[in-house]
Amino acid sequence: MTEVQKVITRLKDTRRLDARQYRQLLVADSPADSRLLQSQARSASLSRFGNRIFIRGLIEISNHCRNNCLYCGIRAGNTALRRYRLSKEEIMECCARGYALGFRTFVLQGGEDAAFSVGVLESLVRGIKASWPDCAVTLSLGEMSEDSYRTLRAAGADRYLLRHETFNPEHYASLHPADMSRDGRLECIAALQRLGYQTGTGIMVGSPRQTLDNIVEDLLYIQELKPQMIGIGPFIHHRDTPFRDMPDGSVDMTVRLISIFRLMNPGALIPATTALVTLDPEGRKKGILAGANVVMPNLSPASRRRDYSLYEGKASGGAEAAEGLEELRRELQSIGYDIVTDRGDFCGAGTFEN
Asked: What mean pLDDT value characterizes the chain?
């Protein structure tokens, strides 16, 4: 057994490593070591969830954002973007269509848009939960006050995804405007956990100026945080941002990190993201075979999907769309997995039983 294989076994058995050991996994270049990492992660996912892949209906409610993050296509400073925000009626129509298709989790995602005040969002969440009480509501709407998060939790929101993007404060500052801080982002994530949300965080893989040491810091942070959801995807440039000429992130490194996170946190909900498919047509399959167990087809109105332009060339059709659910089902069945239509909650203990 190689030294790297011993580290993989240690991670599987103990769910934690030190910085040196995580770095060993990130730089390992042996095909045999990579195969073992992936197979152990896939086994860990299968033991908790079986061959079930959970679907989430993604509704991109607004591409207005007050922030000016340097990497993001919907940044406040992008004057070339056609802006939109969905009405409550449009959002409820998306949910109704999704429910009929079998979705039992709705993910409301958007920029930090002042028009979606906490009062508006509270009414929206209550309306969704009243109409479809067997469904989970996940929010991914950026930084808010703890009181706002508390209000939305009381309204019925079940989960909140807020990627920290990078744990290193200097790297964080290089990606964001001066009025945003790493500490502020981490405090929001801590508040979400205190309030009882199923909490998700994650990183961009290959973001500008990211080093391996930065990724190791992210791994150690998430190891201690123990989130219920881990969302990671490769950085992809956008032509209307300061990072327009920066190289895109690595699909292979993203897939490797999915496997590491699966062994670290066997019960977590880990998506195979749209960004993976944008860079590699086989990206979703690669992510799932590496341990991912969630996919998020787009329920947003078709006329708006291209306007939610976080990065260049964002995939929005075919199996990425709600209307392509049967195509997605066939794709997953080709690698031995099935779509399931339950809420698909975090599985903190025990094993999957059929």
From this structure: 95
Whole-structure pTM value? 0.96
Query: pLDDT per residue over 20-32, tens digit each?
Result: 999 999 999 999 9
- Residue where the block lists tokens 């993989």: 8
pLDDT for 351 beyond 50:
no
- State the alpha helices, DSSP H only, in the chain: 3-14, 19-27, 31-49, 88-101, 118-131, 146-155, 169-175, 182-194, 212-225, 251-264, 274-279, 283-289, 325-333
- Find how far residue 184's CA is from the centre of its chain: 20
Query: What's the Rg (C-alpha) of the chain?
Result: 19
Assign 86 to helix, strand or coil.
coil
Cα–Cα dist 180/67, whole Å: 8
Residue (of 151, 177, 157) closest to 66 by Cα position: 177
Q: Using alpha carbons, select from 100, 96, 95, 102 the residue that is nearest to residue 137.
A: 95
